């Protein structure tokens, strides 16, 4: 393993050197600029984020500038990126940093104390701004590490995220966390993609545990497919049921979104709020639950873009949902 790990490390670092895209947030170590990029990149493609990130950094070049801006203006600038709550969370994090005297925390734990920052974003900022050798995984990194070190990831991953995270930590070449994590991310984004990995020209083909099976799938179908579908426990249908179960257990009083998330999903983190909001919004549309209570009952979750100011007084985790 050690021998093959060394080969994989060298091969992927060399691949990154040759193929890396010239992304502006890779030229800075400013934690604010990195945080903006990481939050924008959640659930949004790089090409789409690029003009937004550039415009954002011109308009609010510092954490102080963002913290002082009215939230409605911040949300208007986010228009078109989707999941507007990310803008609110970003500004709340900026305000928390200003409250600390303008100094960003430089540890994963410290970063996670900022509002709206979960383990992935905290790890990414600690690594990409403070150059720490910390492990974190997004969808692309999970896929690459699973395929190389564990095996084929379809029809579903064979190990839990915790195990992949341990592999991610063990795989970081000491002192090269920044380059390594960027390399794994980039490799997953443009080479070892979900459906059409470029196995035939892969620099780690010989070391890759998934290569034989993925190659067979590519030869048979031209792409890697999830032939058996995703397990029911990972479907939105399953989570809709879990949410309603949770509300039934608290009939009448309602449950804060933060508690709903923790109750229905293992390892629920702030990055999961857009997903959870989509689910509760769909359930409300179907007449199965009500979002908000009392004054908050007017909060139209599906109408964020149109009425951004309503979120000023409503941190996402404190929104209540209840049975009708
Ligand atoms: S051989 Fe294929 S599946 Fe394995 S790392 Fe390379 S591109 Fe990914």
Secondary structure: elements and pairs:
Elements lengths: L1 H18 L11 H11 L4 H14 L3 H5 L3 H8 L6 H15 L8 H5 L6 H10 L10 H12 L10 H11 L5 H14 L20 H11 L14 H14 L5 E2 H8 L8 H13 L4 E2 L28 E3 L2
Helix pairs in contact: 1-11, 2-3, 2-6, 2-8, 5-6, 9-10, 9-11, 13-14
Iron/sulfur cluster binds next to helix 9 and helix 12.
Describe the structure.
- The protein is mainly α and 324 residues long.
- The chain contains 15 helices and three strands.
- Among the domains are: 30-128, Orthogonal Bundle (Endonuclease III, domain 1); 232-322, Arc Repressor Mutant, subunit A (Orthogonal Bundle), CATH 1.10.10.
- 52% of the residues lie in helices and 2% in strands.
- The N and C termini lie far apart (55 Å).
- The model is unreliable at 294-313 (pLDDT under 50).
- Iron/sulfur cluster (SF4) is lined by residues 147-148, 191-192, 197-199, 202, 204-205, 208, 210-211, 214.
Keywords:
single chain, 324 residues, mainly alpha, Endonuclease III, domain 1, Arc Repressor Mutant, subunit A, three-stranded antiparallel beta sheet, 15 helices, binds iron/sulfur cluster
Short description:
The protein is mainly alpha-helical and 324 residues long. The chain has helices at residues 2-19, 31-41, 46-59, 63-67, 71-78, 85-99, 108-112, 119-128, 139-150, 161-171, 177-190, 211-221, 236-249, 257-264, 273-285; strands at 255-256, 290-291, 320-322.
